[in-house]
Structure formats: structure tokens, C-alpha cells
Design brief:
alpha+beta, four-stranded antiparallel sheet, 4 strands
């Protein structure tokens, strides 16, 4: 398991982000990509230039974010 600092050392240039919307996707959506074993990058489709935040699977779970909602497996 990596710590929070190490998560930002991971290269995400080739990450494949998937959108999940809570309603109509006209106002923007959350994007998620698995960037390592048990490591995720969470972005905002309204601000694609912003650096995605990075979390462990445990942190996503604690926040109530389920990668399965994005069609991703843990």
C-alpha cells in the first residue's frame, strides 16, 4: 500500500478515465481511473486541466465512492 505522498509520484499520463454522472451529464461529471493496485485518480470533467486527486481503494470506500458505479473493478 502506498501513502498519500507516493500516490502523486505515479504517472497518470496513460490513465483511462471513465465518467459517472449523478444526473444529466450537462453540468459535469466525476471521472475515475485506476492508476495502480488499489490506487485511483479522481477528476472533474468540468475542469479537465485540474490535476486529479488520488486515493486508495480504502479512501474511496470511506468516501462512499464505488468504482463499480464507473464500470471499474476493484
Amino acid at each position: 500500500m502506498q501513502n498519500g505522498t507516493d500516490l502523486y509520484a505515479l504517472d497518470i499520463s496513460g490513465a483511462s478515465f471513465v465518467k459517472a454522472c449523478g444526473g444529466p451529464c450537462t453540468e459535469g461529471c466525476v471521472t475515475l481511473a485506476q492508476i495502480g493496485d488499489g490506487v485511483w485518480a479522481l477528476g472533474d470533467s468540468k475542469r479537465p486541466e485540474a490535476q486529479p486527486l488520488r486515493f486508495t481503494t480504502d479512501e474511496l470506500d470511506a468516501a462512499g465512492i464505488d468504482p463499480a458505479r464507473f464500470g471499474l473493478n476493484v
